[in-house]
Fold this protein.
Amino acid sequence: MQNYRPGTDCLHAGYVPESGEPRNIPIIQSTTFRYGSSAAMGALFDLEAQGYFYTRLQNPTSDRVAAKICALEGGSAAMLTSSGQAANFFALFNICSAGDHVVSSSTIYGGTFNLFAVTMKRMGIDFTFVDPGCSKEELDAAFRPNTKAVFGETIANPALIVLDIEKFAQAAHSHGVPLIVDNTFPTPINCRPFDFGADIVTHSTTKYMDGHANCVGGAIVDSGKFDWTKYPDKFPGLCTPDDSYHGVTYTERFGLAGAFITKATVQLMRDFGASPAPMNAYFLNVGLETLHLRMPQHCANAQAIARYLQDHPKVAWVSYPGLEGDKNYALAQKYMPKGTCGVVAFGLKGGRAAAETFMAGLKLASIATHVADAKTCVLHPASSTHRQMSDQELEAAGVGADLIRLSVGIEDAADIQADLEGALAAV
């Protein structure tokens, strides 16, 4: 395809129908694919031919949607997974094994933090968590001889801290490892991490990409720019023969543009099976077709609501990277000058009790654990997802007892504000 702008790619990238073919990406709802000979199927198992034999590994519907996301991010190859958590796990486990080490931003999503600090640690992979605002010297000191990757979120969930992508990329590359960035909140409409030195991008497509709370999903996109062959001892899985596929060496057979995603597909998807249903991939594509329209509206609404909250006498603090004076404003302007996301965090002067009263007074906004949806939703972590923690533990985790996470939807901003006014009046 031609190099189109993002708005056009949202509609057309990844699938160009031939004459008489379906206009929309077809749903290939089949677990298996028929072949005329064992030799033809054998070529697939030897990675000598392209095609499909079992949807646990790949499916045409999913691959066409992955190709669209790849085009939006400006990558060389991509794959869909069954969730954002699976995407982050695959992205790291594809190059890490027992005895390895990863440097990660400390302000990442709590579920990802647990994946790293608990589950993957049990697998023998160690993590060092660093403050994203750390100095270059502090960041450099976190690396070890066995470090295999650096990980961060473009905009942290729910802290809304903007990652200094160039700083983290420079540190990663100076130690011969890739930077992996979760780009869920801004999406490629507002930020393309590859443009600033990131090597691999992940997404929870459940959020803005789907946009309608229809389907859980994830994606991994490779830039194709990190040269694994410069460090064959550090990345043997990509640079030495794979006995489970007759000795294929991924970087030799598929080049830098395809080695990482091919290995993740034929090894990790084969063995873990975290593949999306074709129907879910189809729904994701429907959401992607309006991503370039929804993101500006999310940002405009969130900007207006953040300013309203900032001026309200009952509000103690507001965190939104688009606000002038916000500690993340400068980095947001550098990496996301067109807008950040639709999520606003704030606290009320009455603390936990005031937050609970506020939540009870909402009518339009839905109380939900979800975020980044077309509909406005809100969460008070201290009384829901984090209710088992004391106020002291909440503060230590960066989720104060007064914190309210507001995911501003694409309804009329005046109606969203009126809903907040009614709830604040009861506080």
About this structure: The mean pLDDT is 95. The chain has 16 helices and twelve strands.
